[in-house]
């Protein structure tokens, strides 16, 4: 039967990621119910394709600077560079000895490289209002979960700052949280010349607006309904994004007391 069908009918290749519905014919209908009720296949994409849309993912633990700069050059300045090429440029035009010593790139290294390849760039220190008033993306340093990190600022909307993170993908912070982690209120901007082509790969899209809070993740992440209550509690603890620490800020009303600290944000792929 298989050979008969395969040799008799032309079959088309099924696109990768296609999902087909189960369809039934209904003899009670006078017309061909299969044709009437037929639903076209739905093509689905993995969450990672949206999570890192327009972002060059950093290849190394220490390469967030080169990945963020590559993301900005490709996503805004219409370049087609890879992280290795940008990393080599930063080593060539930046402070080589200091880069090797600290195993990371600085905004000064970025400025020297960007200017060397013919673009205008500068680092600025400004207010939060200065940042959200920008009409272009910018690289901003953040101090988050005990680490120094570079991300690309994309936009501010509905009380959230949306960034392209070379490690985590397209994520967002509340305005208040971002101002807490924004390191020294610094922004690095590349300014195109008049008439110079630019891209909008870093423009905000509907998929970037899917934000869920830590409490929801703590309650439901990695929970399987077949587990007993103790198992669910253990899973929630393993998935927790909160850490219990002693408040060491002498200006805080909870100084020397135990508090919950958020380690990172989670974002919905639905």
From TrEMBL:
Protein's GO biological process: proteolysis
Gene Ontology CC, one term: membrane
GO MF term list: ATP binding; peptidase activity
Highest classification ranks of the organism: Bacteria, Pseudomonadati, Pseudomonadota, Gammaproteobacteria, Moraxellales
Designated name of the protein: Peptidase
PROSITE patterns linked: PEPTIDASE_C39 (PS50990)
Limits of the Peptidase C39 domain: 58-189
InterPro entries: Peptidase_C39 (IPR005074)
């Amino acid at each position: 039967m298989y050979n008969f069908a395969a040799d008799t009918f032309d079959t088309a290749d099924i696109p990768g990621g296609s999902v087909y519905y189960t369809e039934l014919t209904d003899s009670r209908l006078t017309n061909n119910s299969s044709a009437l009720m037929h639903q076209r296949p739905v093509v689905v994409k993995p969450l990672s394709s949206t999570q890192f849309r327009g972002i060059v993912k950093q290849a190394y633990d220490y390469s967030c600077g080169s990945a963020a700069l590559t993301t900005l050059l490709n996503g805004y300045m219409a370049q087609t560079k890879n992280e290795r090429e940008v990393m080599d440029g930063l080593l060539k035009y930046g402070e080589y000895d200091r880069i090797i010593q600290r195993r990371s790139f600085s905004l000064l290294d970025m400025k020297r490289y960007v200017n060397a390849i013919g673009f205008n760039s500068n680092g600025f220190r400004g207010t939060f209002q200065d940042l959200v008033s920008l009409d272009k993306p910018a690289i901003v340093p953040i101090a988050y979960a005990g680490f120094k990190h570079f991300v690309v600022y994309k936009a501010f909307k509905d009380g959230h700052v949306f960034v392209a993170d070379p490690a985590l993908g397209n994520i967002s912070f509340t305005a208040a949280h971002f101002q807490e982690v924004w390191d020294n209120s610094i922004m690095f901007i590349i300014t195109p010349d008049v008439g110079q082509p630019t891209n909008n790969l870093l423009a905000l899209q509907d998929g970037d607006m899917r934000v869920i809070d830590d409490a929801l993740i703590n309650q439901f992440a990695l929970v399987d309904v077949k587990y007993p209550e103790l198992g669910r509690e253990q899973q929630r603890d393993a998935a927790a994004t909160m850490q219990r620490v002693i408040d060491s800020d002498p200006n805080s009303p909870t100084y020397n007391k135990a508090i919950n600290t958020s380690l990172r944000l989670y974002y919905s792929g639905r």
